[in-house]
Amino acid sequence: MNNDNTQNFEIKLLGAVRKTLIAVAKDTMTKPGLKHPLSQVTQKMITDCLDIVTSRQIAIEKSLGTHTRMKPVYTDEQVVQSFSVDDLKKA
Prior knowledge:
Organism: Ruthia magnifica subsp. Calyptogena magnifica
Protein name: Segregation and condensation protein A
Structural class: mainly alpha
């Protein structure tokens, strides 16, 4: 397997692991006040694995020059867009 195939495989593998861990977290989510079906240790292990997967994904993206440093935007989060007054005068 050449380097491109190896990186493509690793990207797919990391994506699958990440999606699976997130699905497990979502499927076992409980309402506040109820006992969580996973132990605190297991929850920490899932979090640690997600951190490792994300770190490796970022490292691969940086090596390929595709890392954008984008962060998620939540629907209830206010997004402020700035613009210059000069741009308004042009319009």
